[in-house]
Amino acid sequence: MIGKVLVLLSGNAAASVMLLARNLIVARLIPVEDYGIAATFAVTMALIEMSTQFGLQQQIVQSKEGEDDRFQAALQGFQLMRGVLAGIIMFVLANPIAAFLKIPEIAWAYQVMAIMPVLRASQHFDIHRLNRSLRYGPMILTSAVPALISLIAVFPLAIWLKDYRVMLFALVLQEGLAALTSHVLAERKYRLVLDRDIITRSLGFGWPLLLNGALLFLVMQGDKLLVGRELGMASLGLFGMGITLTLTPTLILAKSTQNFFLPQLSAASNSGDHQAFDTMARAAFQAGLLNGMVMLLGVFALGVPLIEILLGDKYAPLQPLLIWLAAQQAIRVFKSGPSTAAVACAQTSNALYPNLLRVLGLPVAWWIVLHDGGLWHVIVVALVAEGLGYALALALAHWRLNIDLRPLVPSVIAISLVIAAALAQPALFNGAPRMWTGFALLILGPLLVIVSMKDLRTYARNHLRPTTSRKKV
Fold it and tell me: Where does the sequence pass through the membrane (predicted)?
């Protein structure tokens, strides 16, 4: 089992690190304002992902019919149908998006991006079906191979284009290669079926995820839209890079947590063994907390040096904001545990309400910016909203999934101390009276977090043992 964990983490990390490297290279090679325009492509990508977020990839893992060939073909048919529809909508919305962001001359680029939801929807679902037996290799390669080629392509594209178009064509290339790779690695023949009964059941399973995808779009991209429209493309370039540096490890850890625990939680839920499900769910919650802490401390230690070395002086204004962005993203990682447990029980609406709280923070941030606020105010509002959302996610896990959360309380308290110490970063380095207290919290806090995670330690002791198995992963 430990081998599968390492494969999953290293695979997701490799793909995400290559994409991070691509973004850093692009940011280094083009002006900050052009990188701000390129950041709007990330917003559009999120819109594409939101439009195809029906949870079909999770459904093929969660459902008892997941191994059925016709069920898979029906999911693939439904996915492609929605991808084509999303592409048409994207093409129609290209001009309004460009006008809203006050860059109407870029509308053609958003029209080009309309091909991307079609490419994404044409991926073969075998890469997800194989996750049911904890075989993650095809899924990982489908992410890593396109990321590598997209990274390599940046250099000739930069020499040729020298502006935001570098990112545009790198993104389109990545989506096309991902679709191709998924078919090359599939074990089954690709088939498309339109089955009304399966589509109806998928709608029942997926409509909360689609609505949640819309909320996630507002959560993750609303701040960018706000900053780009009201503070300008240069500010968006800084903010977008800060999000990139902190969101990349967030996505690695959250995706790995879900991919690893979802098949096991689904099996426990389908078997009716609530005690096993309850214990494993808390282990997943604690894994999310641990992941968020690791990411936060990594940014705390390495974030500013990375900005100085890799991006230069033009991104210096980002340095004092980075730890606040990291704290916000850490809390987002925390929510991966409750979200995964909810999906395993087909309670896909659980993720809606925490994200709704986060969305309600957007008008508050917008009002503050319109009254002379800046980037820091936007980030603080988001941080508070994420914290309230996590509290609600835990409450829903207790109320709707009947998970006993009392063993989780010490871990939440310990991780809160770590976040508080990290946010005191300026005091730590300016010789303020709280200096030694802050350092003590950053050293002792992680130890307290690990000690408090009884369920995760028990799970690791029982399941994460080295194996000599040579089965495919």
Answer: 80-101, 139-160, 166-186, 198-219, 231-254, 289-311, 375-396, 408-429, 435-453
The reported pLDDT for the residue numbered 2 is 52
Q: Which of 171, 194, 82, 183 is nearest to 141 (CA)?
A: 183
Q: For residue 356, count CB atoms less than 10 angstroms from its CB and return exposed for 0-12, middle for 13-18, buried for 19 or more.
A: middle
Per-residue pLDDT of 459-471, as tens digits, reads: 888 776 554 444 4
Token readout for 172 is 């389109």
Cα 347 from Cα 209, distance rounded (Å): 10
The answer to whether 36 and 23 are in contact (CB under 8 A) is no
Question: Interior CA angle at 410 toward 406 and 415, to 5°?
Answer: 130
How large a percentage of the chain has pLDDT more than 70?
84
Euclidean distance between CA atoms 469 and 114, whole angstroms: 44
- Looking at the domain assignment, is residue 472 inside a domain? no
Q: For the segment 224-246, what is each residue's pLDDT rounded down to a tens digit? A: 777 777 777 777 777 778 877 78
Count of domains in the chain?
Answer: 1
Range of the domain at 439: 2-463
- Tell me, yes or no, whether 469 lies in a domain: no
pTM above 0.85, yes or no: no
Q: Rounded to an integer, what distance in angstroms lies between the CA atom of residue 414 and that of residue 449?
A: 5
Domain-embedded: residue 340 = yes
278 alpha carbon, distance to own chain's centre: 25
425-444 CB burial, b ≥16 within 10 A, e <16? beebeeeeeeeeebeebbee
Distance CA 39, CA 45 (A): 10
DSSP per position, 88-126: HHHHHHHHHHHHHTT-GGGHHHHHHTTHHHHHHHTS-TH
Q: What are the φ and ψ backbone dihedral angles of 64, each rounded to 5 degrees?
A: -65, -20
Compare 183 and 63 and report the one with higher pLDDT: 183
Closest CA to 86 of 57, 113, 125, 55: 113
41, 71, 210, 266, 273 from 66: Cα distances, Å = 34, 7, 20, 12, 20
What 8-state DSSP symbol labels residue 403? Answer: -
Q: Does 471 reside within a domain? A: no
